[in-house]
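ok trying this again, last paste got cut off
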Amino acid sequence: MSDWKPTRAEALRRLDAFLPDAGYAYAKLRNFDLGLGRHIHVSTLSPWIRHRLILEEEVVSTVLSRHSRRAADKFVQEVLWRTYWKGWLEMRPSVWTQYCNERDRLIRLLESDKELSTRWGSAVDGTTGIDCFDDWAQELVETGYLHNHARMWFASIWIFTLNLPWELGADFFLRHLLDGDPASNTLSWRWVAGLQTRGKTYLARAGNINRYTGGRFNPTGQLAKSAPPLVGPAAPALLPAPTSVGWDAARPTGLLVTEEDLCPQSLFPDIGRLSSVAGVCLTGYRSPLDTAPLPQAFARGAISDTFDRLSKAGYPLAACFDGKDVSARILHWAKTENISQIVTPYVPVGPTRDIVDALARDLQIQGIQLVMDLRRWDAVAWPHATKGFFQFREKTAALLDQMVAGLRVAA
């Protein structure tokens, strides 16, 4: 964990260190996975962006203050991909439900299907005999991180060479990645499998792996030669994109902090309107299987860092809740502090949202309203995630340029 300090200060340090290489150098070298400890051609900012210890608009603004839009286009695209995936899933939340239902069925099946359990066990333990795949599996477990190109190769081999269900692979990633994001992870696995963009799959090729790992691996003759798209339900009809719901400043109000957005000061700067601040860490609920220690420790550390920053700014802090009985403990906090309204940065579709939705229902019974405040970045961009990414990028480019113009990163 020493290399992955879960603080906003570390995010700003990494952004500053990467800044000189965020332009043409990134575009040229970003696909090279040089191995553990040598991810020097990418920013490695994803764990901090995922938890919004640093905001997307901060990253984009800072990069564009150093590089032209043309030079920085590839890097900006990578930031926008995360926004696109989240917006796409927000308007199609049943895709997350479908994934969870099938994942849970398959996890139960592992108990009775010994053949599937053995193949799955070899994959997650990194003992398949495919050196590159095994190395990536072990790196993921040991560090909580994988290069993006390695994630694509890994998913392709999992699905088309090892013939394992993609949902179990997505679950493996989500349980171990420091930057495990429900939208990016689920939809990227669907894309590799040919479910997200119908008929379009991603085939891992030995020559490509050999080239972009600098000759570390050459799995010639070990990989599937074709990647026929999987069959699954059609994408559901679009729901409206979410919008912010105003909150009543006259009511006694508590701020709830989750791992989904750890820059709450920028959304709720008026300390005087808040009676109390509580945090909740729900990383352990990513899967019916155990979430790995590294992402749990990163999320807890990130929330602790957020509380430190809020404390220094004078926010009225209460407690951070972790583990079981979350609803009961938050309800007790609200009653103890005489709170009739709880505000929180918007919680997107995923395991945290599943729990927050249940919490909102429990609170409502007690006459306490939970209000989620949507960031302008999401409000502007998400409604355009109706089709493919490149249409999304074209529709949001001018709007996002306006949003980041003049923005400066704050300590």
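PB: full thing came through this time. The radius of gyration is 21 Å.
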